[in-house]
Design goal:
Chain lengths: 239, 369
């Protein structure tokens, strides 16, 4: 039997990114490796560069210098970043960002437009995902009729629409109360285990950060616990 | 849900704004369709008139003034003289008189050569052509209908009995209510052997009718005159062309205003949906897809406008036409034109907002509050 080779989901070397013509140094030499199927949290104060880092991982932004390889793709040379995002990445944002005039199910179908799927196939897949996040019976209502937690569940289902290999969540529970927040996190973690997706969560809540296999602390665009790679922390928190 | 359905749904998120743009563009389309129908209708009527009788202009005696069917006569020998004028293809005499016909105390009786090209356009629908110098008439179909005349009926003209031998049909109003007999018969009735009232002139192909008429005026101006009414038709043609040009100018203005309206609506829409566009990019939508979506939404608005505008424009014209004494003419061309314009406005109006949406960096779009 062959040995299972675990690939790296993320490989980052000396990554720099600045805004406003170099005045704002958002990322200041980031080095980071994340294995496939890992659950990693990124923590740090506001303005430290967490979202910038996450956006780099999701190919929403291009670094000034350094190397970045995500899901086996060199993002600096890849010309079809939208295709990469569509196939490999599922984004979840602090605000659900659902489209208001279409139903919950139709919102989940939005990422599927990049694939060549029939309407019925899209519907089938969307309903399956809604079942996964426990909202099957809310498929045909508008997002405005949902609670904050439910909307975030829909956003999670949308992130999973194209079977991504990596889920990038930027403060997914940032606007939820702690009880709802815990439920959402549990759902995310369960899905990550079930579907064997790499899960990367940005947060500034240490309680959330600690749920991960390991957490990365960012300050002023640098990782300040570089050894976190080796020091896998134990997940002791009950949710 | 299909991508197309999504595109169709989107413009109606902000109903008021969508309705305002639709009204704006629909007004433009109404103008295009209604004015188009009226102008085409006028041109059509005018073309019927100008080709009636097949003449380019006519000639009458000097004193008859502006009346084409004047009572003053000229000698029939003028016909041959006119034929020799360069540029003249054909010249044929007619004799128009006012006399009592049937119940009408005064009605025009038109005498034409039965063999001549004369009023060849009076195509006989029923019956036959009259014989020379016989008490026979051909009547226009409208006149026949109005007076319930059939072939074989007798009409009293100037005290004599005439037999209806043919009924003619023509699109031209004045012809359809006319009464025609042979030139010689009219001359006979008038005791005016060698007289005619008018000569109808047809110019050679490629000749300018106005120039030929001028030539005749110059040569024989002392005795006869060319009747300007046909010439006035030329002026009417110019007027119609101007009307057509102004229709286009008004349409263009309507299009520009409508186009600016749609650019504004779509820009607002893109601006309001900045975060959403960021999300679409984040879930992997290509720039082409986003461009297609925005231009598609713009097209939805303009096509809906074209449908509404065409319907309103058509019915407005049909309802108002009788009051304006105009017969509008609606050909598919007008509606095709309206839709092509709507589509062009939709694409141009949506293009700039769509490019704006595409150029939006996704991270900034997502940071947008
Ligand atoms: N598109 C941009 N244009 C200009 N400056 C930016 C842009 N994106 C981020 N920045 C700046 O880069 C720095 C890092 O921003 P980033 O959003 O990554 O911080 P963060 O750690 O996610 O903060 P928060 O916890 O508040 O979300 C900040 O100073 C921010 O103002
Ligand atoms: Mg952030």
């Amino acid at each position: 039997m062959n040995e299972v080779i675990i690939m790296n989901a993320v490989e980052i070397k000396d990554l720099y990114k600045s805004y406003e013509k170099g005045k704002i140094k958002a990322l200041n030499g980031i080095n980071l490796t994340i294995k496939e199927g890992e659950f990693v949290s990124i923590i740090g104060p506001s303005g430290s560069g967490k979202s910038t880092l996450l956006n780099m991982l999701g190919a929403l932004d291009i670094p000034d210098s350094g190397k970045i390889n995500v899901a086996g793709k060199d993002l600096k040379s890849d010309k079809k970043l939208n295709k990469f995002r569509s196939e490999q990445i599922g984004f979840i944002f602090q605000l659900h960002n659902l489209i208001p005039n279409i139903t919950v199910r139709e919102n989940i179908e939005i990422p599927m437009y990049t694939q060549k799927l029939s309407s019925s196939k899209m519907k089938e897949r969307a309903l399956k995902l809604l079942e996964d996040v426990g909202l099957y019976d809310k498929a045909d209502i508008l997002p405005s009729k949902l609670s904050g937690g439910e909307r975030q569940r829909v956003a999670i289902a949308r992130a999973l629409a194209n079977n991504p290999s990596i889920i990038l969540a930027d403060e997914p529970t940032g606007s939820l109360d702690s009880k709802t927040s815990n439920k959402i996190l549990k759902l995310l973690i369960d899905l990550h285990k079930d579907k064997k997706v790499t899960l990367i969560i940005v947060t500034h809540d240490m309680n959330v950060a600690k749920l991960a296999n390991r957490f990365i602390e960012v300050l002023d665009g640098e990782i300040i616990n570089p050894n976190s790679d080796k020091s896998l922390i134990n997940n002791q928190i009950n949710i | 849900m299909s991508f197309l359905k999504f595109i169709i749904k989107n413009p109606f998120r902000r109903k008021n704004s969508a309705i305002m743009s639709i009204i704006g563009i629909a007004i433009g389309i109404i103008v295009i369709v209604a004015l188009g129908g009226i102008t085409d209708g006028l041109i059509n009527t005018f073309e019927d008139t100008i080709h009636a009788g097949g003449a380019d202009f006519s000639i009458a005696g000097k004193e008859t003034g502006n009346s084409a069917f004047g009572t003053n006569t000229i000698d029939s020998s003028w016909t041959d003289k006119i034929k020799t004028v360069p540029g003249v293809d054909e010249a044929y005499p007619i004799y128009v008189v006012l006399t009592s016909i049937g119940d009408d105390y005064m009605k025009t009786l038109i005498g034409v050569n039965s063999n001549g090209t004369g009023l060849a356009d009076i195509s006989v629908k029923e019956g036959r052509i009259f014989k020379d110098n016989a008490n026979e008439v051909i009547i226009g179909n409208i006149y026949a209908e109005d007076n319930d005349y059939k072939i074989g009926d007798t009409i009293k003209i100037d005290g004599e009995n005439f037999e209806v031998v043919g009924i003619s049909e023509t699109g031209d109003q004045s012809m359809a209510s006319g009464v025609f007999t042979s030139l010689s018969k009219v001359q006979d009735l008038m005791d005016n052997e060698d007289s005619i009232s008018n000569i109808y002139v047809k110019v050679k192909k490629g000749e300018d009718a106005k120039k030929v008429a001028d030539r005749i005026d110059k040569k024989y101006g002392d005795d006869i005159q060319t009747i300007t009414s046909v010439m006035e038709m030329g002026q009417m043609a110019k007027m119609l062309n101007m009307l057509q040009a102004s229709t286009w100018a008004i349409s263009l203005l309507a299009i520009i205003i409508g186009g600016l309206g749609i650019i504004n609506t779509m820009l607002m829409s893109v601006f309001e949906r900045t975060r959403e566009i960021g999300v679409l990019k984040a879930v992997g939508w290509s720039n082409t897809k986003i461009l297609t979506m925005i231009i598609g939404e713009s097209l939805v608005i303009t096509i809906v406008s074209a449908i509404i505008g065409s319907i309103i424009g058509y019915y407005a014209c049909v309802i108002l036409a009788p009051y304006m004494k105009i017969t509008p003419l609606f050909t598919p061309k007008i509606f095709i034109q309206a839709f092509v314009i709507a589509i062009i406005v939709g694409i141009i109006g949506g293009l700039y907002p769509a490019i704006k949406a595409v150029k939006l960096p996704p991270t900034e779009a997502l940071r947008y509050e």
